[in-house]
Specification:
Largest interface: A-B, 27 and 27 residues
Largest sheet of chain A: 7 strands, mixed
Shape of chain A: globular
Distance between the termini of chain A: 23 Å
Helix content of chain B: over 70%
Structural class of chain B: mainly alpha
Largest sheet of chain B: none
Oligomer: heterodimer
Number of helices of chain A: 9
Number of domains of chain A: 1
Strand content of chain B: under 5%
Number of strands of chain A: 12
Chain lengths: ~300, ~190
């Protein structure tokens, strides 16, 4: 499997800081990692150290979260008072046993593990983030999807009182996203409750967000309140905003350009002014795990 | 008095440039420095386009002629910031990767129209001197109406590169449309 050797392209100083970080985080994180065997055992030559983590500062101050505004620093500036407690998540639709769970119940029922994933934004930049979360399939299995459940729809919170961006018709609020059921059941698809060993910051989608590492970042919904299993392919907010530019799949694909900009390369956040663009890889580098989901599909057509 | 005005405008116009140099030297560009420089120089190009377009209407409304005395300088600053913007893209972002750059210019409409706007600025810069104004006579005025096209291209460039029109691309477009509409009304009344 192709791995991201960020040590090769990142100034050594940051790389060393990264190592210090691992030590500081201590054994707790180390033991959590054992759970994510996908990233520790798949390739013996790849250790966690080789993934150059993006600075916590950048991960939490450079965000696309249009509910709080379209500027990159809007989310951190405007989300600090956002109330994430109480918070309930409804899981319903084509399921045997629909449930409503509070965020506390979710964190209790599904122990979190650390997953270091690369996040590739459709705008052409990427970060590497240590997430805490658990596979979405764990929660889906709990509700027993019926055989009509072909897709999963994710609905984010609608709260224009607290979310200033929702007072404007930037997107079709609340934010909606979707996955095909097999994508949703895939072990790499996780629900996230934290990052960098801390509770998920508001600007990153607290209290519960999705993370699908082989798709462009906007597929990973933030502040989810409803996970709905459905029969028909849901229309996401971005598909509705511009159907020619945002397809349902939105897999990272250097060969399929966004109609307005190229997807061949990306900038690594935190690399500084001297760091060059790096080539974008198919499925954001997770092809070995997920390419099978799309065998026989024309990914130019189903972009 | 007038020369003070002119030199103050000049000094003020260099502030964005000095600011970005400061940010580069002292590493204040944030998570995505190259994009920051690109956006910064691009946005200031649009600001100077708006300022340049605002001078004639200001002269009409205030009856002061000094507005148009700085118009040429502001127009040259449009070219200055547009060139910095273009150079950031070519030199820092794509590092003379001409294959990728020409591909972008041809295939990506926002890059095409932005590049076209920069090219259209060149004849205006060349003919900006007093000598040229005299030499070209009434043609000079016709030629320099290109700035209207450049302004529209500039705002389209911003709209097309943004994921949504909200809010900055929309604001710049509205300001430019407003400044252009003012001119249409002048023509009818004069």
């Amino acid at each position: 499997m192709k791995r991201f050797k960020y040590s090769e392209i990142t100034p050594e100083k940051i790389y060393k800081n990264r190592r210090i970080f691992i030590k500081n985080l201590g054994l707790a994180a180390g033991s959590m990692l054992v759970g994510s065997n996908l990233f520790t055992s798949a390739d013996a030559s790849t250790s966690k150290d080789e993934l150059e983590l993006t600075d916590y500062r950048y991960v939490t101050t450079y965000n696309n979260y249009y509910e709080f505004g379209t500027g990159k620093s809007d989310p951190v500036e405007r989300s600090q008072k956002f109330k994430t407690n109480p918070w309930n998540i409804v899981i319903d639709g084509e399921v045997e046993t629909p449930i409503t769970l509070s965020i506390e119940e979710i964190t209790e029922m599904f122990p979190s593990e650390e997953r270091i994933y690369k996040l590739r934004c459709v705008e052409g930049w990427s970060m590497v983030i240590p997430w805490q979360g658990f596979p979405l399939n764990k929660i889906l299995k709990k509700v027993s999807p019926t055989n009509k459940a072909k897709f999963v729809k994710f609905i984010s919170v609608l709260d224009p009182e607290q979310m200033i961006g929702q007072r404007f018709p930037i997107l079709d609020w609340p934010y909606k996203e979707g996955l095909r059921i097999d994508e949703a059941m895939h072990d790499l698809t996780i629900l996230v409750t934290g990052l960098y060993g801390k509770k998920l910051p508001n600007q990153n989608g607290s209290p519960l967000r999705l993370m699908v590492p082989w798709k462009y970042g906007f597929k990973s919904s933030k502040a989810i309140v409803n996970i709905k299993l459905v029969e028909k392919m849901p229309t996401s907010s971005w598909m509705k905003a511009s159907p020619k530019e945002y397809g349902f799949y939105s897999n990272v694909n250097p060969k399929v350009d966004h109609p307005r900009w190229s997807q061949a390369t990306e900038r690594v956040i935190g690399g500084g002014i001297i760091s060059p663009r790096i080539p974008t890889t198919m499925f954001n580098g997770y092809g070995d795990e997920v390419a099978g989901l799309y065998s026989g599909m024309d990914l130019k057509k189903y972009f | 008095m007038r020369s003070y005005f002119k030199s103050s405008v000049f000094i003020l116009s260099t502030i964005p440039f000095l600011l970005i140099i400061y940010k580069i030297l002292f590493n204040k560009l944030g998570p995505e420095p190259v994009k920051e420089i690109t956006h910064f120089t691009g946005e200031w190009t649009l600001v100077f386009i708006c300022l340049t377009l605002a001078m004639s209407p200001l002269k009409r409304f205030t009856n002061f002629t000094f507005w148009v005395k700085v118009r040429r300088m502001l127009g040259l600053f449009v070219f200055f910031y547009a060139t910095l913007h273009l150079l950031t893209y070519i030199v820092i972002d794509y590092r003379f990767d001409w294959q990728q750059i020409t591909d972008d210019v041809v295939k990506k409409k926002y890059i095409f129209i932005g590049f076209a706007a920069w090219v259209l600025l060149i004849p205006l810069v060349i003919t900006s001197s007093q000598k040229m104004i005299i030499a070209l006579k009434h043609n000079w005025k016709k030629l320099h109406r290109l700035i209207y096209v450049i302004a529209i291209f500039g705002s389209l460039h911003y709209i097309w590169l943004s994921k949504t029109i909200f809010f900055k691309p929309l604001i710049y477009s509205l300001v430019i449309i407003f400044l252009l509409l003012l001119r249409i009304r002048f023509k009818k009344t004069t």
